[in-house]
Amino acid sequence: MNRLKQILLGIAVTFPIYLSAQPQLTAVVPWEIPQGIFFGMPLDNFQKAVELGLMTKDTSDVYRWTYFHEHPTDSIEGIMYFIDNQLDHQPLYEIAIAYGSQEVARNKALTLFGEPNFLNKQTGETNEWRFANPGFPDIWVWIVKGNLVIIANIPGTEWGIDWYLY
Known about the structure:
This protein is of the alpha+beta class. Helix content is about 25%, strand content about 30%. The chain is globular, with a radius of gyration of 18 Å.
């Protein structure tokens, strides 16, 4: 019985440490994003975490590489992953999920994030989401043309510069 108590105590002590060390992306993206994908992950880790054979890669942009997974589920037309190619660790900093309609994308965002909480300075509308992600990059979300766009504020990436301009 003492051995069982020691094991249970060990689990009780280490499990919260394990949870706190895990990336929090799964809390801010739909279930359709493969487990193990998180903002800031280096390109090498990203390539190991996804099925590259199911994706096309676009290297035409000077500052990023885009990986596109077409029709990963019946409800999604595609998922685009954006990797910065200028920083040494080449982090994943943006994910865009194509739902095909504004209504579906908005409903998914409302389910994940609740009502929009951020005033877009360009449009004057509160139609975006921003929130702190303690211990991880802050998150910014919006919907455009049926796409749910989720970005992380990673300094040196495309959106890191513009974070406070919008």
